[in-house]
Specification:
Length: 269
Amino acid sequence: MPDLPPLRDVIARHGLRARKSLGQNFLLDLNLTGRIARAAGVTPGMNVIEIGPGPGGLTRALLAAGAFVQAIEMDERCIGALSELGEAYPGQLTLHQGDALKVDVTTLCPAPRRIVANLPYNVATPLLLGWLRQVAAFDSFTLMFQKEVADRLLAEPGTKAYGRLAVITQWLCDVQREFNVDKAAFTPPPKIMSTVVTLTPRPAPLAPANWECLEKVTAAAFGQRRKMLRASLKPLNLDLEALGITPTARAEELPVEAFCTLARAIEYS
Ligand code: SAM
């Protein structure tokens, strides 16, 4: 393993004072970043895409595990520090400076590919939804989210956290909680806990449905989640009983497959 300077020194030397506007909460504990790389199942020669490498704590763990890393970082102040890291692992790290929301990450490296990241919390959900649009292009996603977002990804029907994000994500992926990470693990510490989750694309979605139609029915149902479905879905003009759905039920009681049934009904109506 190359002899690398402590991350604190890298941050000081390159003037990487954390910026809130970029969701910068850095991980300096290399045991923790190693744990994330292990949770992602990173092995030598694997193609890994990392979003927001920052000063490179998680990147170090991915490179040490032998991955070929494509890293997209918006903050140009980090590029110098990351270039030095790349020199310590020749040929393994490719840097892209820019906004990950604007990059089709599937163009960066051939499949099989995984995404591993401590995501900037301000764009974590839109990034995930963009990747889910082309979910079959990925082997897995191991991602750090704010705990509250992770809870929504993992939520089961009948719970307060169950909503649109759970339905869309679980429709396409198996979602597993890896571990929670305390605020104190970050520099600077965020206000709330974080959680690492792994999303593994299902061989096929839980049930057939069209993305836009599924979005439409979940938006209608969860937009007024306290109302009975016969009220919240009224504008969609569906015969709920004929579809096997109890009209007096509320959105949070419906399993993912039932939302797929509703999505198919509006697609073909
Ligand atoms: N991976 C580093 C770590 O674990 O210490 C930093 C994680 S920090 C939570 C999020 C990183 O994402 C920051 O380095 C930030 O500059 C970067 N970032 C924020 N918005 C971004 C965007 N839209 N595209 C790419 N990187 C972004």
